[in-house]
Write a structure and sequence with these properties.
Elements lengths: L2 E4 L5 E8 L2 E8 L3 H14 L33 H31 L2 H16 L10 H21 L5 H22 L8 H17 L2 H17 L7 H4 L5 H21 L11 H14 L3 H6 L13 H8 L14 E2 L4 E2 L9
Antiparallel strand pairs: 1-2, 2-3, 4-5
Helix pairs in contact: 2-3, 2-4, 3-5, 4-5, 4-6, 5-6, 6-7, 6-9, 9-10, 9-12
């Protein structure tokens, strides 16, 4: 690739670049020959106009067995060794979904079908291989599958207008199969009705919109109604307070799922913020004030809060965009994106049918 040859005239050159089966010859001033060669060669490497380089997707993950990363029964103290083993076990999932949502958001910002082709191809490849549909070797694996379903379904929802009919025929039934597996585990009678239930609700709501499946939407609405009934008059969630030093962390985690669900409902013209007397507003206010001043949760949870508490993601931007000025006082720093939210929440659709 990239041959050039001088003509007999000393001030001219012909630049010849072979790209695939096409040979381009340019009669140019001698002094420009190398510059033209460089430009032509770079253009050849970039490929056709509008093409986006897309690496092959990583091997799909069907079976999961990450360990629980807490060292105590109530889930309040992280065990460093278990946490390390957990990170290693889920690293391939994090890498896959992280790349998918990043590329999805780039495609949305560019409004580019060419850019959307790569994340769609990755999702399609994992769908064809039945990712997340194998053996779940631990409860933590089931939790991971549910969180990842929320992320991949929301990313696909953003991309669906770019998807080929053949891709939709593969991806959408696959999302439904994962949703059924997640439901069967989390809705079993022995499961706690806590933040895990709320994240199931988000994953089902996202799947419902991404696949046009009304029964998943009905399931999500029922979960939302139950969750709102858990919120106390002071805006706390009793089962999350039981997490001791991690109580504030799990309030933020629960708030992330519930606000995201309410926003998906708003896309359909439904007001889930107003359900149960607006109890979601109480949870948001309590969580925001707790993150701004963590010591306020010490007495509520009867334990000093873990200094490594995270603030969740997405919920504060979504809430403030819908209710500007409703939250007062200092506000926490809450990231606007996460892979389990399909990437940047600012790029969620504004309306769905």
């Amino acid at each position: 690739m990239g041959r050039w040859a001088n003509q007999t005239h000393p001030i001219y050159a012909v630049v010849r670049v072979t790209c695939g089966n096409v040979r381009v010859s340019i009669r140019a001033w001698y002094r420009l020959r190398m510059a033209l060669l460089a430009l032509a060669t770079v253009g050849c490497l970039m490929g056709p106009v509008g093409a986006i380089a897309c690496p092959s997707p990583p091997p799909p993950v069907r079976d999961l067995a990450p360990p629980r990363f807490y060292g105590d029964a109530k889930g309040s103290t992280v065990d460093p060794e278990l946490a390390r083993a957990h990170r290693e076990a889920v690293a391939p999932l994090k890498a896959f979904l992280g790349r998918v949502v990043s590329d999805t958001d780039k495609a949305l910002r560019r409004r580019s079908a060419a850019a959307a082709a790569c994340p769609l191809a990755w999702i399609e490849a994992w769908a064809k291989a039945g990712a997340w549909l194998g053996n779940m070797g631990s409860k933590q694996a089931e939790y991971q599958r549910k969180w990842d379903l929320a992320g991949v379904a929301l990313a696909y929802l953003k991309l669906r207008s770019f998807a080929l009919p053949s891709q939709r025929a593969v991806i959408e039934p696959w999302l439904g199969r994962i949703a059924e597996k997640a439901k069967a585990f989390q809705l079993a009678s022995e499961r706690k009705r806590n933040n895990h239930l709320y994240w199931l609700g988000l994953s089902l709501a996202a799947t419902a919109l991404a696949t046009d499946t009304p029964r998943y939407w009905d399931d999500a609405r029922q979960i939302m109604s139950e969750a709102l009934g858990h919120i106390g008059p002071d805006g706390t969630l009793p089962l999350e307070l039981e997490r001791g030093q991690r109580a504030l962390h799990y309030h933020a985690f629960a708030t992330t799922a519930l606000v995201a669900m309410a926003e998906l409902a708003a896309l359909k013209g439904e007001d889930w913020y107003g359900l149960a007397g607006g109890s979601l507003h109480r949870l948001v206010a309590r969580t925001a004030s707790g993150l701004a001043a963590p010591h306020t949760f010490d007495a509520l949870a009867r334990a000093p809060q873990d200094h490594s508490t995270t603030s969740g993601a997405g919920w504060l931007w979504l809430y403030q965009a819908r209710f500007p000025g409703r939250l007062s006082g200092p506000l926490p720093d809450v990231p606007e994106k996460h892979r389990w939210l399909g990437g940047d929440v600012k790029l969620l659709p504004r309306r769905v049918e």
